Automatic annotation (TrEMBL):
This is Molybdenum ABC transporter permease. It is a multi-pass membrane protein. It is found in: Cell membrane. Residues 63-264 form the ABC transmembrane type-1 domain. The keyword Lipid metabolism does not apply. PANTHER family: MOLYBDENUM TRANSPORT SYSTEM PERMEASE PROTEIN MODB.
Length: 273
């Protein structure tokens, strides 16, 4: 159909909406804002410096301890967080919204406060701290303390991811299972758990990725044994940016692998749904 100029609508030159350019500029700014500092961080150390860092047993030990403690924090989150996420997804009760807000609190508050709060509980001035010490459990300067802190900061990510996974499982499937005589536990392990397992895997990766980058709370509870973020801080303050960069680059690679795994799991989940 032709208009007054004699041109059909599809023949007229298309005018790009100004909103597109605004979105394009904002998108470019976001990508550059994130990628530029990390690219500089990765490119500045020479290959020799990176290899030298790998030959340093302290660096290997700190990165290995970061992976080990973050993995333990994910396992603890899986054990205690899965039933809790199921309860939040399937039950309605007074104060549920308040409890959900409390779960998200570690995401928002400054993490040195978390370290101070945990230490105040674990000290001799608190009855819980005295009980723990009598039982031989020490948090200050121990791997147990690091795992406790990492679980505290990573647990909200796991609970929120798994809660969303449980909510996506149709409740009628559970009702059918219960109507056929299965108990609540049998229904959970035979119906709900298998259908939500990918959300659990995503939650584990998110929890581990968040935990492996924690610094502010760990440095208060356990400066030693030294995890990778603490070692980066220690080398930066003691020797300067050049000596801290190789360790930081290897930690970035570890985090990148975790997020690649997360993307892979997410893409598989989208294809299966």
């Amino acid at each position: 159909m032709k208009n007054e100029t004699g041109l059909r609508a599809e023949d007229r030159p298309r005018r790009v909406d100004p909103f597109f350019w605004a979105a394009f500029i904002c998108s470019t700014t976001v990508v550059v804002f994130i990628v530029l500092p990390l690219t500089e961080m990765i490119l500045q150390p020479s290959f020799r410096d990176l290899w030298k860092a790998l030959e340093d047993p302290d660096v290997i030990r700190s990165i290995g301890l970061s992976i080990y403690t973050s993995s333990l924090a994910s396992i603890v989150s899986f054990i205690i967080g899965t039933p809790f996420a199921y309860l939040l997804a399937r039950r309605r009760f007074h104060g549920k919204g308040f409890i959900e807000s409390l779960i998200d609190l570690p995401i928002m508050i400054p993490h040195p406060i978390i370290g101070i709060a945990i230490l105040s509980l674990a000290g001799r001035n608190h009855w819980l701290g005295r009980l723990m010490q009598e039982a031989g459990i020490h948090l200050m300067g121990t791997v147990t303390g690091i795992v406790t802190v990492l679980t505290f900061v990573g647990l909200p990510f796991y609970v929120n991811a798994v809660k969303a996974g449980f909510e996506a499982v149709p409740a009628r499937l559970e009702n059918v299972s219960r109507s056929l005589g299965a108990s609540l536990a049998q229904t959970f392990f035979r119906v709900t758990f298998p259908l939500a397992r990918r959300s659990m895997l995503v939650g584990l990766i998110l929890c581990c990725a968040r935990a492996i980058s924690e610094f502010g709370a760990v440095i208060i509870v356990a400066y030693h044994p030294m995890i990778a973020p603490v070692m980066i801080y220690e080398r930066f303050t003691a020797y300067g940016i050049r000596y801290s960069q190789p360790v930081a680059v290897w930690l970035i690679f570890v985090c990148l692998l975790l997020f690649l795994a997360l993307r892979l799991v997410s893409s598989v989940r989208e294809k299966s749904t």
